[in-house]
């Protein structure tokens, strides 16, 4: 893993995969958290493949990330916080810089996206573990985080430090929701 592909200890391809798996789990044909119906599934691929034959998987991912981010902001949007869909500017910029290179190498990403499309189970920790995106220790830590009394959010403890563990806990905390009931994970931004 080269320095060009990391920020702090976050490998950017890992972040892209983590977001994409959670985005798929939240679709209407899975957990029904946001209003995209199988866009990251086989149906979405067949629709977008016609217009974007080489890069349709990335278009699918970016689209559902956007939908998920907007839905989370509708439910709970605290000032001075980060979510899985709205991290720090530095992380988001790093991800954008690498995006173009991934588009150039879209064929090597195909197996990942095809596997995401086949995703059926909706248990967040299990799915992330099956994709080798979280560790057992991260899963155990995520299970200890409690939902806020408002029932709409769950706050990852501490200040968001732009490190892998913090991002993994944001993703794992989506498990606090249930089918049709989105609970928005967030963390306090440094300086907020």
Number of strands: 5
- Mean pLDDT, to the nearest integer, reads 88
* Tally of contiguous helical segments: 8
Structural class: mainly alpha
Distance between the termini: 32 Å
Rg value:
16 Å
Question: Rough shape?
Answer: globular
Poorly predicted ranges (pLDDT <50, ≥5 residues)?
Answer: none
Q: What kind of sheet is the major sheet?
A: 3 strands, mixed
Identify the strand order in the major beta sheet.
3-5-4
Portion of residues within helices: 40-55%
* Amount of beta strand: 5-15%
Helix-strand topology string: EEHHHEHHHHEHE
Q: Could you outline the blueprint of secondary structure elements for this entry?
A:
Blueprint: E1 6-7, E2 10-11, H1 12-25, H2 42-49, H3 56-75, E3 81-82, H4 89-104, H5 106-117, H6 124-130, H7 136-143, E4 153-160, H8 164-172, E5 184-189
Parallel strand pairs: 4-5
Antiparallel strand pairs: 1-2, 3-5
Helix pairs in contact: 1-3, 1-8, 2-3, 7-8
Can you give a write-up of this model?
By secondary structure, the protein is mainly alpha-helical. Helix content is 49%, strand content 10%. It has helices spanning 12-25, 42-49, 56-75, 89-104, 106-117, 124-130, 136-143, 164-172, and strands at 6-7, 10-11, 81-82, 153-160, 184-189. A three-stranded mixed beta sheet has the order 3-5-4. β1 and β2 (10-11) form a beta hairpin. α1 packs across α3 (56-75). The N and C termini lie far apart (32 Å).
């Amino acid at each position: 893993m080269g320095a060009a592909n990391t920020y702090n200890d976050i490998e950017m391809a890992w972040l892209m995969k983590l977001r994409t798996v959670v985005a798929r789990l939240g679709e209407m044909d899975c957990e029904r958290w946001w209003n995209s119906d199988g866009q990251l599934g086989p149906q979405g691929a067949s629709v977008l493949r016609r217009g974007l034959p080489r890069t349709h998987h990335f278009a699918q991912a970016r689209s559902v990330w956007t939908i998920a981010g907007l839905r989370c902001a509708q439910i709970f949007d605290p000032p001075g916080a980060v979510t899985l869909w709205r991290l720090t500017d530095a992380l988001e910029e790093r991800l954008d810089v690498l995006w173009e290179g991934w588009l150039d190498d879209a064929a090597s990403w195909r197996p990942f996206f095809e596997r995401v499309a086949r995703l059926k189970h909706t248990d967040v920790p299990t799915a992330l573990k099956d994709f080798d995106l979280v560790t057992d220790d991260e899963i155990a830590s995520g299970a200890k985080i409690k939902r806020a009394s408002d029932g709409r959010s769950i706050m990852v403890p501490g200040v968001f430090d732009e490190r892998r563990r913090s991002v993994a806990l944001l993703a794992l905390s989506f498990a606090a929701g249930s089918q049709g009931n989105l609970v928005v994970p967030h963390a306090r931004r440094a300086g907020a």
